Amino acid sequence: MGQVSVSGALAVRGRGSELDLVLRTLRRSRESGAALVVVRGEPGIGKTTLLAEAVTQATRLGYTVGQAAAHDGDRIAPLASLGPALRTGTDPLVTSAEFLDLAPVIEQPLWLAEHLATLLTRRSKRDPLLVVLDDLHWADPLSIFMLRIVPARLAAAPVVWLVATRDIPGGPAELVAASAAGLPVHHLELHPLPEEALQAIAADRLGEPATPPLARALRQTGGNPFLAVQLVDGLLAPGAAQDAGRLYRPGLSAASGSAWPRSPPAPPRSYALARCSAPASRWTTPPGCSTSRYPR
């Protein structure tokens, strides 16, 4: 699995085959109609990063993109999750006036789905569309209902639906995928990154290859890229000399070009993350480990 470039950012490592599937889906949709891509994986495994690169590539291919992320409190407000995806960006998928026109049917889900399908069909005649929703497992019920109905209604339109979720049996992603009658549905399960990808992440951020002690510490992340990034970024943080001396090389310049400070600091946040995330219990909460440290 090789490097995938990201405009204005570091490379996406270890997800070449997954991104290739997304790109092929985007290219085919322009000619063959709608498709659904469901990305699954544990917290921190790289779902959001994959979606961000997909958005970058879709924009290059001429897609108009609407994207949003669901949040834990979305369930109390109808369309709180999908609604922002319709209205984001400089060229939203749905205009302000069109969005306001949906309000009278907000309590009539079938009518709402028909209205929304009509708007997106009309919009897709200008440009192909990519609709992205991260953290689908937190989406409100009305947004999930729209995702069950509208994609199938737009089967002939150049619209790609890209959602990411934790792998929850019987969760919203399974309902959405099961309802996508007549659409190509692609399932992407993100697995832990191999050691070489973790070391490539470290080299990207440090500007040189990881030392053996750092490589050993990276293995303790269990292949979770979020934890790997936090670990390496801790070495680049101001006052990281103590840990940098063990895992990097004291006195060498960091990515910023400045020498490591010599005063003994407190351990950086990344080491707390690594201690709290052994592969066997990575997403539990061991004593002294706050759940607020973890990604959604």
What keyword list fits this structure?
five-stranded parallel sheet, Rossmann fold, AAA_16, alpha/beta, disordered C terminus, 296 residues, 7 strands, 2 domains, two-stranded antiparallel sheet, 42% helix, adenylate cyclase activity, ATP binding, disordered N terminus, single chain
Description:
The protein is α/β, with parallel strands linked by helices and 296 residues long. The chain has two domains: 3-189, 3-Layer(aba) Sandwich (Rossmann fold), CATH 3.40.50; 208-293, no CATH class. Helices cover 42% and strands 11% of the residues. It has twelve helices and seven strands. The strands form two sheets. It has a five-stranded parallel β-sheet, with helices on both faces. Strands 1-2 form a two-stranded antiparallel ribbon. Strand 5 (129-134), helix 6 (141-153) and strand 6 (159-165) form a beta-alpha-beta unit. Helix 1 (16-32) crosses helix 2 (47-60) and helix 5 crosses helix 6 (141-153). The model is unreliable at 1-8 and 249-294 (pLDDT under 50). This is Orc1-like AAA ATPase domain-containing protein. Residues 282-296 have a biased composition (Polar residues).
